[in-house]
Design a protein that fits this description.
The chain is α/β, with parallel strands linked by helices and 174 residues long. The protein has one domain: Rossmann fold (3-Layer(aba) Sandwich). Helix content is 23%, strand content 38%. It contains 3 helices and 9 strands; from the N terminus they run βαβαβββαββββ. The strands form 2 sheets. A 6-stranded mixed sheet has the order 4-3-2-5-6-7. The protein is globular, with a radius of gyration of 16 Å. Bound molecules: guanosine-5'-monophosphate (5GP). Guanosine-5'-monophosphate binds next to β5, α3 and β8.
Length: 174
């Protein structure tokens, strides 16, 4: 079985325009405050670059690697494989995510940052699949809502490939 790129869902132009819109909202909501952006590697890399360039506030960036092992339907065990390097206590953390699927990973990460004394914790995702949600997580900032499709490109992979595609497309199994 191999995977190829099916139809394009969002072009680079569409995603960058959306990042501008989303970042403008963040600039407005956090006026006068500073931000601590935490990107989830590796998928959020490209979206994060688009978002951070549009942020006009005093901003630090950091990265986290979390993986979710979904042994059963209801319990996803999330492990942090690479932690943030800075101290998030008292900071306005915005987790930058590629896609919110079941929400399991972010549910744990929200807890993780709140437990470390962040002043606030929100999510800024490029894509969201609400029909797949299992954990009560909704990103405050989101680019596009999509159906239950497996997508690749713009940071998103299939078996570590396709992250470099300059658009989001549907993965097609051959
Ligand atoms: P969740 O904990 O929300 O179920 O998992 C979110 C993670 O699953 C995302 O950060 C991403 O790595 C992966 N994921 C979920 N849906 C897709 C998809 O359609 N395409 C790709 N490439 N990864 C996905």
């Amino acid at each position: 079985m191999d995977v190829t790129v099916g139809r394009v869902l969002f072009t680079e132009e569409q995603i960058r325009a959306k990042a501008k819109e989303v970042a403008a909202q963040i600039n407005e909501d956090y006026k006068g405050e500073s931000l601590y952006l935490v990107g989830t590697l590796r998928g959020a890399l490209v979206w994060m670059a688009d978002i951070m360039k549009e942020i006009t506030l005093d901003t630090e960036i950091d990265f986290i690697v979390a993986s979710s092992y979904k042994g059963t339907e209801s319990t996803g065990v999330v492990t942090v494989k690479k932690d943030v390097e800075g101290d998030v206590a008292g900071k306005n953390v915005i987790i930058i995510e590629d896609i919110v699927d079941t929400g399991t990973t972010l549910y744990k990460l929200l807890d993780y940052f709140r437990g470390r004394g962040a002043k606030s914790v929100e999510i800024c995702s490029m894509l969201s699949k609400p029909s797949r949600r299992k954990a009560p997580v909704e990103p405050k900032y989101n680019g596009f809502v999509i159906d239950d499709l497996f997508v690749i490109g713009y940071g998103l992979d299939y078996d570590q490939r396709f992250r470099n595609l300059p658009f989001v497309g549907v993965a097609e199994l051959r």
